[in-house]
Prior knowledge:
The protein is of the alpha+beta class. The protein has 29 helices and 18 strands.
Amino acid sequence: MAIVELRGCRPEPLSGYLKALAVFRLVSTQVDPQAKGCWQGECFCLDSTLDSDSLLKFFLSTYSPTPLIAPWNGGSGFYPGDRRDGIDAILQTQEPRFDDYRQTIRLVQGFGELPRTDGMLLGDMLEVAIGGAKKDEEREDWISLKNSLDDTNVFPPLRQLTADEFTKYVNKLAKGSPELTSAKAQAKSIKKLVTKVKKTGGGSKAEIVRACRNRLGDRAVEWLDAAAVVRADGDLGYPPILGTGGNEGRLDYTNNFMLRLSELLITPAKHSATLLRSALYGAASDGYVDASTGQFDPGRAGGFNQGTGVESSTMVNPWDQVLTLEGAAGWAGGVSRRQRVNSPRLAVSPFTVSCSSVGYGSAADSDTSGARAEVWMPLWSRPLAFSEFRSLLKEGRADVGKNLAASGLQFAQAVASLSVDRGIREFARFSLLKRRGDSYVALPSGRIQVDFAEAADLIQELTPLLDHCARLTEPPPRLTSAKHALERTIFEYLTSKAPGRLTSVLQAFGRLVQQLDFDFGRLRIRLSAGWLDHLGSSSEFRIAAALASLRSIDGIFSYSYLQRSSPHHAWVGRDLSHRMACVASRRLMEAGRAGVPGHAFAPSPVRAPQKPLSLAPEEVTAFLLGRCNEGQIEDLLFACTQFDWSHVQAPRGWERTSRVGILPRDWALLKCLFFGDPLYPAPGQPSVSVRAEPTIIPLLLAGRVEDACAIAQRRLRASGLSPYRVTFSDSRHGARLAAALLIPVTQRRLLNAVLAPQEKVS
């Protein structure tokens, strides 16, 4: 066995991957059934009985091409007016390697399902077209063409010629003559006429595909599985990597394939061997041809600004085109025959999902509407046989929960949760996008490692909201932007697995919730407590979670104060501190009105032995000093409103003591009035309930901290407590003090900073 590194077969572009697959498939099926292959670094390695020289000799001398045909397509070589150089060369050669191809072509030529225009006179075609015209304008065009063919002084009259005979007539006309100019204009209309007559006779595309599957050999059917398959509902399904059934616009892949075979193998040019070495091993070569590459290699598509000059031509290696299509013939999973009628239409192709416009530099929202699909090509490092690889393709699935992944974002979730077939180390992602007008390109959209992400299951909790947004008709631009930002951050987390990016995911989710204004209809988003385990080290998240966990007041939950459409909306003000202070005032008023003043600042009650999400008092210090990211706190607060706080408890280690700064005594004093629950000044002593003073928050917003603290001291003494006799000065951070009163904290160290020694908590 010899290991050959195919340095010309790289994971990117798509043509490079398919070339590797072609070599793997052809060697395994025609030379060495025990051959194995794998990806090492950036090239494909083949372990077989062939060394590098004998591999070249195999393709040049004994390789038998797969019979690639697409008789359901115009331009495939089976219809008048099609280019027939390649198909005629295969029919005329006597080389045994082309026996399957010749037999396949001759069988197809005898199909009764093919529309018959060969041998049909132009005049007869026009009668069919005129009779089948559905619009007056169309009928007038055909009558005009008929008159122009009748007026010509040619014998026999042009209307008595076939389409092929008319082409020969045009080729005989003198250059620059008026007759040639007129004939070229007629030729364009005749081409449309042939297409029109094709559609009015013969079988449908689906009937032609069924005929091919029923009557052709196994090797041709292998190609059909990759190009056009019949779904369970009877419709045709087209695997996206081969366009719409083996063609890309006017480019028919199969006809182009036959033409390249004739140039390389039947009447080989002098550069055929060096071109093959270049295709397989990346060696330098000349002899490239100017030809269209389709969507497989965007870098060689040509056109304006695609090269060193203003406009570049499409110089390609013809062996690249042959091997690319041979590889595409191997990208067939047989998935469609096992799918339900209502299964995703892209399930006809392995590892293929709808496009998500995230994860690549040119991503735009408009990509999803014009995109064809996404294909995720597996890269494996353990050598395996081609039969094993085919089994992998036949599974060809990635699961998100109990469902198949349907989009690029969901596929990334499946990879991060290891819900894909095992043995794959990495995926190369290709987005089939519309670029350069109506042309498609297989854009390399990055790689994703198959590694487990601990929080991948949490991402699935956000999917219902994304699906809800996708169903909205004409969503506002701000909502669309927020949805796209969430998808982008999710994809970045799933591909990088960086724990810090999970905070960005929940933050983007909060921005989307804010744009939706909680108008979910019947949709209920319920985040699980797992988010607390993963994000519990973030000060901003801890503050946001504690704020969102405040107890409901007479059925009014925390999110009601943030919701713009709610009658209890109080989230107003120029910055986060003023908005939090407004909510504190509103909660105080609502609690007093409901007769439950203690509920205004208390966290949600939980079942024993669960604990509420109160923070250590020292954790508020960073917020009071302005060292927190207030924008992040606000975004996370909106996200945290989607927890079911009646069933969420503080995870282990939640009650930790922060070492940031010293606990400010002015805030600690004020918080004793806005604690919510009764105070326990010392073990064994009865609890003390302290009534909040509504005037304190307006005083703080006005910067009168000294007056607010004096009122708090009097209120504590009136309740039977003995606070330190300290004089406080006014502060320009009064609004921040008022906002911090809303954050629920524990008593353990709060009272130590406020009460005189004889009443301290042990």
